[in-house]
Amino acid sequence: MKNRIEEIRKARGIRQEDFAKSLSVSRQTISSLETGRYNPSIFLAYKIAKYFGMSIEEVFIFDEEEA
Length: 67
Description:
Shape: globular
Helix content: 55-70%
Number of helices: 5
Radius of gyration: 11 Å
Number of strands: 2
Structural class: mainly alpha
Strand content: 5-15%
Strand order of the largest sheet: 1-2
Order of helices and strands: EHHHHHE
């Protein structure tokens, strides 16, 4: 699943460390999410979208071919 986490985070001037801390995850988790090596649980995806004030669909790009 593709996402816009890095794009949105950088546009808002948020460091990976600060973002991770606010979500109660490790910086490595954020890095893995941003590079597409890790797909979040629905709970974490919701927390990320809520943090940015966006919908899950605005942050995560669902590709039916990957499903």
